[in-house]
Amino acid sequence: MSLVVVSGPASEPMTLAEVKSWVKVTDAAEDDLLQSLIVSARLAVEAATNRILLTQQWRLLLDAWPADGPLALPLTPVRMVARVSVQDGAGLWRDQSPSLFTLVSSADRARIFFGAPPLAPGVSRGGITLDMVVGYGDAASAVPEPFRVAMRHLIAFWHANRGDGERIGTGLPSSVVTLLAPYRVRRLA
Known about the structure:
The chain is α+β, with helices and mostly antiparallel strands.
């Protein structure tokens, strides 16, 4: 199983002005740095929680369907499965009818249930693709506030600790870990 970003979000959960106010920067000298920290903080929060903050398109690549039961999707919240395609033995991709499966998405998990056995791939590796629309919404206001607070803490930490010669560790600061702990969705194997 592997995941690929097809298209990222159209905007970020925080504006440059919000971040500049939070880290108390008034001039434009660090605008590029702060903008890159916004993107990096979103990516870090998404990676730590397996939750996608703003609307994005992702592709899930599978070698085979689950032997029994539903297919558990590794990201949340899944808003829709846009396309399911299976590669046959001749190498042709066959789109599967949406009527063959049902997406059941909750706050913590999304699963696909099959009404009938899905078409088996004719290749041994990467013969199934699922294109999904994932995220809380298109606007920053759709992102739950704890994620935005965690991003602010992370950006401030990175801004204050940038190459001073000290080793600050490889993980997230404890304040960020604490903020994200209730929202972490573990990936299923």
